[in-house]
Amino acid sequence: MKLKTLLMGAAASLALAPAAMAERGSDGALNIIMWQAPSTMNPYLSGGTKELIASSMVLEPLASMTPEGEHVPRLAAEIPTLENGGIAEDLKSVTWKLQEGLKWSDGTPVTSADVVFSGQYCMDPQGGCSQLAKFEGIESIEAVDDLTVKINFTEPMPDPYSAFVGANGPIIQKAQFENCLGANAPTCTDQNFNPIGTGPFRVTQFLTNDVITFEANPEYRDPAKPAFATATIKGGGDAAAAARSVLETGEYDYAWNTQLSPDVIAGMEQMGRGKVSAAFGSLVERIHVNLTDPSSSHPEGERSTNAHPHPFLTDPAVRKALSMAIDRQLLTEIGYGASGKPTCNYVPAPEAWASPNQECLTQDIEGAKALLDEAGWTVGGSGVREKDGVQLKMVFQTSVNAVRQDFQALIKQWWSEIGIETELKTVDASVFFGTDPGSPDTLQKFYADVQMYADNFEGGNPAPYLAKWTCDKAPSPANQWQGENISRYCDPAYDALLVELGKTVDPAERGKIGQKLNEMLTKESNAIIPLIYRGTASAHSNSLGGVQINAWDSELWNVADWTRVQQ
């Protein structure tokens, strides 16, 4: 292992030494509020951040990311490297070794068979795995022995830390999920709501879109952790109520995603009960353009699918005009203050991958009008542009959130100035970011023309994040509406360049290819319209120790180390 990794591990051990001396469960109850309530505990069936965070209390990957973006072992004994022989010299395989003595919360041993099965589960073509991009380029996963797993790649893989790294790539128990492969995956309710895990807690009750209760995992590998005997994640409400419950009333210890205006947060913090902490990783608030037709005039199962291209959003001029009309600087000032930065990039970090493109940062209403004029979209008597009998009328949806509703109102006004009529739609966050394939209001179904939300990727390798946008990953009934390509973007040139990325070893060249892929999604096609590079912000009580906000992994990545601080 590299010296830097060893030093970081030593420093972390020293920092956490006082907590390690505590007795498991000695600090009582931990209360967390997530106003976007989790709808499953299986992150392979949800791309939503709320599900990843909740499930990380129970399910663990082979390795995690620190707040600094460094890899650290979780279930693995060490991080594989070229130096220790874990990464093959030809870069076509990586070998992971599990820690000895690991147990599932039911007391059975964790083995390499569980890791192999976890890969089979996600890579099943009928399973609709939300994290499929993390397995891009994998040829096979094999158990060398009970504690050793070898992942083989189809081509040299310069960054093999994708599958099973981070909260969205956990190891699930083969014995529990072996009857849940493929199309059966979403039907396994008990497994998806109550997974057997290796993390510091285990589920005692799961009420979808409401509350999850946990107890300390008696089989957790560190006998002194977690410090809390029980934990509760309460869902519902809104960001403001969640923040107040920590910063003003003290009812909760931790409030996830306090997405509120800077002045509101400052007022709450004056009570002296807690504070909001933020960290920048890869989180971007953006608008997705639906390149397929969501009209209810189509039969169910054909709406928002490639069977019906969108009647006007397939016009590049319309998509570009939508972006040109937006004042990103103003949105940042009113919505995020110092915890946000206007951006034109879908991938804002690491630096080598971030495009220098800044064209979209200047609002250009008149330029947008001229572009639409040139494309033949003329203003009709109602003030709405039209062409060949098609009017520029859209439904713009997002989750219920005060900042997002402010953004919707402003963007609707700007779009009206260029002749586009917009109907605003809001969906409860638990539904919008949910996983129910029968719901018409999930972000995956995308029964609207444009929609706004944010997510991020873990670690310093954006390649799996960019791999979401290949033609074969569009949500549809065939994959339980769990595909990752939300905009239904499809460009064979993009797919080919992604293959080239997978074959490129030189870090500088990988960054250049990543920038090009980012630009194809954004300024060249405007299938994705980036708005703001956001810091991950959450509120925590002054009585809660050990919290380290992490923008590269689950925010609860080190919940095993949290303690109650006496004030």
Fold blueprint:
Layout: H1 3-15, H2 17-20, E1 29-34, H3 49-55, E2 63-65, E3 71-73, E4 93-97, H4 112-123, E5 138-145, E6 148-153, H5 174-177, H6 189-193, E7 201-207, E8 211-216, E9 230-235, H7 239-247, E10 254-255, H8 262-269, E11 274-289, H9 316-324, H10 328-335, E12 340-342, H11 365-374, E13 378-379, E14 385-387, E15 390-391, E16 393-399, H12 402-417, E17 421-427, H13 429-432, E18 450-455, H14 463-466, H15 492-503, H16 507-521, E19 528-541, E20 544-545, E21 563-564
Parallel strand pairs: 1-9, 1-10, 16-17, 16-18
Antiparallel strand pairs: 2-3, 4-6, 5-6, 7-8, 8-9, 10-19, 11-18, 11-19, 12-19, 13-14, 14-15, 20-21
Distance between the termini: 39 Å
Mean pLDDT: 92
Shape: globular
Please report the total strand number as a whole number. 21
Low-confidence stretches: 1-20
How many helices? The count is: 16
Helix content: 10-25%
Q: Label the structural class.
A: alpha+beta
Largest sheet: 11 strands, mixed
Q: What oligomeric state do these chains adopt?
A: single chain
User: What is the radius of gyration computed over CA atoms, rounded to a whole number of angstroms?
Assistant: 23 Å
Proportion of strand residues:
15-25%
Family: Belongs to the bacterial solute-binding protein 5 family.
Protein name: ABC transporter substrate-binding protein
InterPro entries: Peptide/Ni-bd (IPR030678), SBP_5 (IPR039424), SBP_5_dom (IPR000914)
Pfam families: SBP_bac_5
